[in-house]
Automatic annotation (TrEMBL):
Gene3D superfamilies hit by this protein: Immunoglobulins
Keyword DNA repair: no
Record GO terms (molecular function): cytokine receptor activity
Taxonomic superkingdom: Eukaryota
Subcellular location: Membrane
Membrane-spanning residues: 318-340
Keywords: Glycoprotein, Membrane, Receptor, Signal, Transmembrane, Transmembrane helix
Name of the protein: Interleukin-13 receptor alpha-1
Organism: Ctenopharyngodon idella
Signal peptide boundaries: 1-22
Record's bilayer topology term: Single-pass type I membrane protein
UniProt cross-references to CDD domains, sorted A to Z: FN3
Length: 409
């Protein structure tokens, strides 16, 4: 019995939800009708549609146009709201387009947005180039690319919304693999720029259209120079750029890569940077100019490396003292021993043997035990007779007369 009532409640709830959902769908406004498009130029797409039927005249109607840069209406999209039965879009067709239009109602019984009316646009049949890159500086932008297929007379054109027609990019053979240069005074301030590649493929004229970020997102700055000098106990790193006059000073910052005692560090600062100087370390530094994101994007190449000072071990003085002092002491000791050995007779003279007189006095002053008991006073000293060599001979002081040999007659 309980199971029967549970099933009945579930069926009733499902039927009520279906009716409520059907009412909500029926209350949505109808979508626009007969959505069509036409390319007025390679970069301008014109969309038109018809107003939905059965709308109250008191309703305020507007339309939402969503543009997906692919053939599927999914993912990211650009959106705009219009009140007319059509709009024109400045757009390129690189990977195909999917465009959806919905109806929006206000001040009437029906409200909200309708289901979307979609239209899909196929991409070009032939892709002409890839790996596009740009470098902007002082109203000039270098454009390079790599051809995908063999196309005769391949040329690049560009278009700014302020212009009525496209302009040709001037070819430059120095740009590799292929490239050209755009000279235009409005590049710095433009927000949208479109590119058109045109050529002949298999006897048929083909073209591709692209759009990329505004030129100031590709700023290329010249390589700066770096100098290092000491001011008292400070070490000052000074960066000098050669082309930093196009934008405001706040648009530039400097990235210093500094090696101190072989320890690397990176810091972002102004055109000069100061550190506390350590005389025991060798400094190696490079600098790069960075273009701030609030003004655009880009940077320069790294400067040449600059060196200052020499590396030294902080423990070196103590180490040298431990090695040199014992060495000096040992050397001095060795020299002292050599000199002592060489001049020992001067430093330690030989003591002469006492004369016979002192020996005899010592001997005569020695008393026997019997003599010590005698009441008589000490005995007198009797000196020994000195022995003097008596064999002395005198020779007459006669001149030397040489002997003459008898010569035979």
């Amino acid at each position: 019995m309980c199971r029967f009532w549970d099933i009945s409640l579930i069926i009733c709830f499902s039927v009520s939800v279906m009716f409520v959902g059907g009412d909500n769908i029926s209350e949505l406004p109808p979508p626009p009708q007969n959505l069509t498009f036409i390319w007025e130029t390679p970069f301008r797409l014109s969309l038109t549609w018809e107003k939905p039927e059965d709308l109250d005249r008191s309703c305020i109607v507007n339309y939402t146009v969503n543009v997906h840069h692919s053939q599927e209406c999914s993912g990211k999209y650009d959106s705009r709201r219009v009140q007319a039965l059509g709009c024109k879009l400045n757009i390129s067709n690189e990977k195909g387009l999917c465009i959806s239009v919905t109806t929006n109602l206000e001040n009437c019984g029906k409200s909200g947005s309708s289901q979307a009316t979609n239209i899909s646009i196929a991409p070009p049949s032939v892709r002409l180039v890839e790996n596009r890159s740009y470098e902007y500086s002082h109203s000039k932008m270098n454009c390079t690319w790599i051809p995908v297929v063999d196309v005769q007379d391949l040329s690049l054109y560009y278009w700014l919304p302020r212009y009525e027609s496209v302009k040709k990019c001037i070819p430059d053979e120095t740009l590799k693999p292929r490239g050209c240069i755009i000279h235009d005074e409005f590049l710095k301030d433009t927000l949208d720029i479109f590119y058109l590649f045109n050529g002949t493929y298999n006897g048929t004229s083909v073209f591709n259209t692209f759009t990329d970020e505004r030129p100031v997102k590709y700023v290329k700055l010249n390589k700066p120079q770096l100098t290092i000098h000491k001011d008292r106990q400070k070490l000052i790193f000074q960066a000098n750029g050669s082309d930093l006059d196009e934008f405001a000073k706040e648009c530039y910052s400097y990235i210093y890569t500094i090696s101190k005692c072989n320890k690397n560090s990176t810091v972002k600062d102004k055109e000069h940077y100061e550190v506390q100087y350590d005389p025991a370390c060798k400094y190696r530094a490079r600098v790069q100019v960075d273009f701030s994101q609030k003004c655009g994007a880009g940077k320069s190449d790294l400067s040449d490396e600059v060196e200052y000072g020499e590396d030294s071990d902080p423990k070196l003085p103590a180490l040298l003292a431990v090695i040199i002092i014992p060495l000096i002491v040992s050397l001095c000791l060795l020299v002292s021993l050599v000199l002592l050995r060489r001049h020992k007779d001067i430093i330690f003279p030989q003591i002469p043997e006492p004369s016979l007189l002192f020996k005899d006095m010592l001997i005569n002053n020695i008393r026997t035990p019997e003599e010590l008991q005698s009441p008589a006073t000490g005995r007198l000293y009797i000196p020994l007779e000195e022995v003097v060599e008596s064999k002395i001979s005198l020779e007459p002081d006669t001149p030397f007369v040489p002997m003459m040999k008898n010569e035979p007659k």
